[in-house]
């Protein structure tokens, strides 16, 4: 049995470790314009620099299913320790690498590390908690991730003003988390928990239908949201004389709203179904992106970010709770790995989905198109939520 103090350190480690997924990507967003200038003679530099931000997502999407299998077969702690070490070295490599292609290779390795970290910590939460405590801790996880986004984006913006390489040093934070994992994280007894859940040692059947729906929601929502870190720095700097620090401030304010909403997730989840919360996510993303696309005023763009941020605060805890609540413990690692894959595949494909609109029209049009698509999906989930409520009432 772990002491109360060790459990406290374990929980803090899980929460702070979860925030590293934000550090992996969006923290570099304010540095993209300066990086683009530094490599301006490189062919296709605009796309390549955007890929520096999103290419980790490709490797996370590829690596997440395998990390999920390893979590179930090797254990949670060995995967996390390995991933945290790789994260620190691969992430910080951008500070010293001299070519854009070399930086992208480092980002690919970083993505593999994030696949293990994100799947590992989320799986541990499902192992350690259940019921209302699970809802509460998932809300805490999303909130800490969002608050981490506030700090990382602010720091990234100001460090980018010093020099675009300096934000890469923040990845060394992983070695601090590594100490906490080694000291306080105990390996859960998955076999015992599986017997407790299903009443036997027979391998549990994977609920592909509901899991597939959750994965699809994760993929689409992240593709629509990720237009902000990928395109907003260029949108603001083109529209007006906005500094990297102001870009970081705008994006950090969105993360702050997401953090505040995440803290209320347990109460929101007690009143609304996962279907209804998903509708709210798409509704707020839609309103926020349309507002950003229609106005270039810094204040109105920030307002759009705040509205979208409220939905972002509900997105991750809703998906995580929904998934781990329907997945048996014996296959939880691979299930969470599938969710991680879906989220980051959406991140990676986001610039490819929006770039044709940008080239045909402009950045403002890309935000409006993404916003309209989100609003249409919100309507779909209004119908879906009502349908599920009717079926539940009839079954009851």
List the helices and strands and how they pair.
Layout: H1 4-18, H2 20-24, H3 32-38, H4 45-73, H5 76-92, H6 100-128, H7 131-162, H8 174-184, H9 190-198, H10 208-225, H11 227-239, H12 244-263, H13 265-271, H14 274-294, H15 298-326, H16 332-360, H17 363-395
Protein model, in words:
With 396 residues, this protein is mainly α. 82% of the residues lie in helices and 0% in strands. The protein has 17 helices and no strands. Helix 4 runs antiparallel to helix 5. The longest helix is centred in the C-terminal third of the chain and has 33 residues. It is globular and about 55 Å long.
Which percent range fits the helix content? over 70%
Low-pLDDT regions: 194-202
Distance between the termini: 41 Å
**Order of H and E elements:** HHHHHHHHHHHHHHHHH
Percent strand: under 5%
- State the shape: globular
**Whole-number average pLDDT?**
83
Number of E-state strands: 0
Largest sheet: none
How many helix segments? Answer: 17
> What structural category do the secondary elements indicate?
mainly alpha
What is the gyration radius calculated from CA atoms?
Answer: 20 Å
Give a short overview.
With 396 residues, the chain is mostly helical. Helix content is 82%, strand content 0%.
């Amino acid at each position: 049995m772990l002491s109360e103090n060790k459990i406290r350190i374990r929980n803090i480690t899980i929460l702070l470790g979860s925030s590293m997924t934000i550090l992996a990507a969006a923290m570099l967003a304010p540095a993209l314009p300066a990086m683009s200038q530094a490599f301006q003679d490189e062919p296709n530099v605009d796309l390549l620099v955007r890929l520096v931000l999103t290419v980790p997502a490709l490797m996370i999407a590829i690596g997440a299913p395998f990390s999920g299998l390893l979590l179930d077969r090797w254990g949670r702690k060995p995967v996390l320790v390995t991933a945290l070490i790789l994260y620190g070295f691969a992430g910080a490599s951008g500070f010293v690498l001299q070519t854009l292609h070399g930086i992208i290779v480092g980002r690919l390795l970083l993505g593999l590390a994030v696949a293990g970290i994100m799947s590992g910590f989320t799986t541990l939460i499902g192992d350690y908690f259940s019921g209302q405590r699970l809802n509460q801790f998932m809300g805490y996880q999303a909130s800490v991730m969002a608050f981490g986004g506030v700090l990382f984006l602010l720091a990234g913006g100001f460090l980018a003003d010093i020099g675009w390489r300096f934000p890469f040093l923040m990845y060394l934070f992983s070695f601090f988390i590594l100490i906490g994992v080694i000291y306080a994280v105990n390996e859960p007894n998955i076999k015992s928990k599986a017997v407790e859940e299903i009443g036997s040692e027979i391998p549990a059947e994977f609920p592909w239908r509901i899991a597939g729906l959750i994965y699809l929601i994760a993929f689409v929502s992240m593709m629509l949201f990720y237009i902000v870190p990928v395109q907003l720095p260029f949108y603001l700097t083109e529209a007006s004389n906005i500094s990297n620090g102001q870009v970081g401030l705008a994006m950090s304010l969105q993360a702050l709203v997401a953090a505040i909403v995440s803290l209320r997730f347990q109460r929101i989840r007690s009143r609304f179904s996962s279907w209804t919360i998903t509708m709210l996510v798409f509704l707020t993303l839609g309103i926020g992106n349309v507002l950003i696309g229609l106005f270039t005023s810094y204040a109105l763009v920030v307002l759009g970010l705040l509205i979208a941020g409220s939905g972002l605060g509900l997105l991750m805890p809703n998906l995580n709770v929904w998934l781990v609540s329907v997945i048996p413990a014996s296959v939880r690692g691979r299930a969470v790995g599938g969710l991680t894959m879906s989220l980051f595949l959406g991140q990676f494909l986001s610039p490819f989905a929006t770039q044709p609109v940008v080239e045909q029209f402009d950045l403002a049009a890309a935000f409006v198109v993404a916003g309209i698509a989100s609003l249409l999906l919100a309507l779909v989930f209004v119908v879906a939520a009502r349908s599920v409520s009717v079926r539940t009432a009839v079954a009851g």
